[in-house]
Amino acid sequence: MSSRKNVTQYDVAKEAGVTRSMVSYVISGNSDRSVAPETRKKILAAIERLGYHPNKAARTLQQGAVGMASKRIGVVLRSPDIFRRPYYAEILEGIHIAAHERKHQIDFIRFFEELKDPVLFNELIHEEEIGGLILLSIGECIREAGGDEILEKMRQRIKKIVCVGWKSDGLSSVMFDRSAAAEADAEFLFSEGYENIAYIGQQDERVAGIHKACRHHQQDDSNVIIGTAFTMEGGYKAMEKIHRENTLPRALVCGSDEVAIGALCYLNEHRIAVPQEVALISIDNIEDSAYTMPPLTTMNVQKSGMGRKAVEMIVDGFAGQGAEATNILLPVQIVHRSSC
Question: Residue 60 above 70 pLDDT?
Answer without folding.
Answer: no
